[in-house]
Amino acid sequence: MTFKIAEKNFLITGGTGQIGSFLTEKLLENKANVTVIGRNGNDLKEIQDLVDTKKIKFVECDLTNENRIKTVGPLLQNVDFLVHLSSEFRFPEPNSLSSAHHTVELDIKGTILLLQQLKQLQGILFTSSAAVYGKPSYLPTDELCPIRPISFYGCGKFATEKYLKLHSSNKDIPLTILRISTVYGQRDRSNQMIPIFTRKALRNELIKLNENGSRDLIHISDVIEAIMSAIKLNQNNLFNIGTGIKFSNHFILKKIIEITKSQSKILRLEKSEDERGFFSNVWNKKIFQENNLNADITELNIAFNKKKGTIRGLHYQLPPSEGAKLVRCTRGRIWDVILDLRPNSKTFKEWYGVELSYDNYKANYVPEGCAHGYQTLEDNTEVFYLNSQVYNLDFEKGINYSDPAFNIPFPLKVTMISKKDSSWQLFKL
């Protein structure tokens, strides 16, 4: 029998994100009553109109906060169907301790605390991930592929699957698990691979490709169709959601350059390895010049940071002292942020964050006119800078790291910050 969506009370966790916002709209089209739960009431960009017009209910709640969940519990007593999308995916490093902590807190503890408040569920749908397979034994993967996660994110997803299966069995509630591959399309997070590549291509920038991975890409519209079909079935099911086609990162980047008619060139960082270790070229003045990037190096700097959670930035310099930077983390780990302050740029006021570490060998290129900052993720972290301009105090400016105009989600509680950096004024045009 088909599950009737109309007039049913749906609760969506993670409803402010890409999948959640589109699913909310689709459920409303099908006459459902929708409540969205999210940890930040200031992050409602995609569903703000629905909240303002009272087409949906929004409940601000951090699923790891037991007291808060108990407080909002009475608002959730009439939920018929749970669509559980929430997940912690802030940290790109697969095996960082920060990633492990947040996975346990949100994916597992948060799920348990939430289910304790839902007393009359008629169905559950959980969006898991193809990350549970790690490096799969064969491609395309099917639902019988061995589970071998290689990241805490994948471990967290699989652990949540197991707990939900037990809960579903004990309470006799139908459970659908969807292991979704890499989603792309409208409303994708700005710090994901395809948006990053696209922005660089539109600016005709040199694009460094330092990983040779591949992924199964599926468009957001197909994901929503799959979820709606699964809800209507409302049975104990497990499905992989993807295309079954493997696309290399190099192929994806080439296709973006082709579609955007970009003049960007791809710089692939190759390692020459032997029994001693490896050698790799990370700076080539000629290549930068050929791609209209600032290739002048006038200053080299090192910043040492004693404590995890330290913030430096966000800094920039005014003309004639504005310059470009190439930033690497040579000891420990940082979450590195670039904020575009160029009024004529297509990405004006957008930010990009990436984890740089001693282990991943990544570097961040900061163009002129952009602010830069970072937060340390480990004690005793060292950061190395190549600068095109000498630092000049008279032309120094900054953006407050907590400025609500940008809502940059620095991952850790701030433990140390200079008086100067904490007192930068809020952004004004």
The chain-level structural class is: alpha/beta
CATH superfamily heading of the largest domain? NAD(P)-binding Rossmann-like Domain
Task: Characterize the main sheet.
Answer: 7 strands, parallel
What proportion of the residues form beta strands (DSSP E)? 25-35%
How far apart, in Å, are the first and last alpha carbons?
A: 57 Å
Number of strands: 24
List the helices and strands and how they pair.
Blueprint: E1 9-13, H1 18-29, E2 33-38, H2 48-52, E3 57-60, H3 66-72, E4 81-84, H4 97-115, E5 123-129, H5 152-171, E6 175-180, E7 182-184, H6 193-202, E8 207-209, E9 214-215, E10 217-219, H7 220-233, E11 237-241, E12 247-248, H8 249-260, E13 266-268, E14 271-274, E15 277-280, H9 285-290, E16 299-305, E17 311-317, E18 325-331, E19 333-340, E20 351-357, E21 363-366, E22 370-376, E23 381-387, E24 396-398, H10 419-422
Parallel strand pairs: 1-2, 1-4, 2-3, 4-5, 5-6, 6-11, 7-10, 8-13
Antiparallel strand pairs: 9-12, 14-15, 16-23, 17-22, 17-24, 18-21, 18-23, 19-20, 19-22
Helix pairs in contact: 1-7, 4-5, 6-8
